[in-house]
UniProtKB/TrEMBL annotation:
Keywords: Methyltransferase, Transferase. InterPro entries: Methyltransf_11, Methyltransf_Superfamily, SAM-dependent_MTases_sf. Residues 23-119 form the Methyltransferase type domain. Gene3D superfamilies: Vaccinia Virus protein VP39 (3.40.50.150). This is Methyltransferase domain-containing protein. It comes from Microvirga brassicacearum. One of its GO terms (biological process) is methylation. CDD domains: AdoMet_MTases. The keyword Methyltransferase applies. GO terms for molecular function: S-adenosylmethionine-dependent methyltransferase activity. It holds the Pfam family Methyltransf_11. Signal peptide: none annotated. It comes from the Bacteria. The keyword Lipid metabolism does not apply.
Amino acid sequence: MSLNYPLVVDLATRYAPPPGRLLDFGCGTADVAALAGDRGYDAYGVDTFLGVGASSENLAIATARIGSRAVAITPNEPMPFDSGFFDVVVSNQVFEHVADLGNVCHEIARVTRPGGILLALMPTSEVLWEDHLKMPWVHRAPAGSDRQRRLMKAFRRLGFGTAPNVDADEWVSNAVCDLQEHVFHRPVSEYVSAFSKNFRLIAEDEPAWARYRIRRHRLLKHGSFLFESSFLDGLIRPAVRRAAGAVLVLERTDGV
């Protein structure tokens, strides 16, 4: 299980304690929603269940975990919930796959009650490691450019990348296509701007991401107290932004 799953639920309990209705937007196999249910939330999950892998199997797993609260949605269509239905919406590593960010933010705002919380974790253009391809730097080159292809081929020769048995040229062509069509590396400022139409940014909690992992690391946990001071936040935040991405906490404002 990804360490992000319990972290997301821990953050939700901090900013919007249970009981309450929680939506995991882009739930996959509903790991987060199931954990949230165990912590006292009335937890739902939505996903398109499209893309890489056996998507119908993911829906079956999600349904086994949270029943009918696992809901398949259609891109660019309203979610099947009343306005203001949820107290908290969480999204883990999903927004970087959303092409029409404005429309999705508007729909999430619609189903979140005024004063409710949106918790969003996602890689941004600041990260140094492209985790979908398991390579450094390649997403920072112009999309589809010769430079990007050369970087991919070079890192592939060094042993980076997924699917090691696939021909290198074929893999690079597929990887370039994936980054152009399915992964959108935006700066944090672009996310904040899109959210700000219906939400107010209340925290950039990358330090929580770091401390959660340090406390659970086999070696670092013994010195975790050294990282607890808030005076270190100014150093931890940019480090996490480059290592993993952003952790944004936003509050729903009044209005549509």
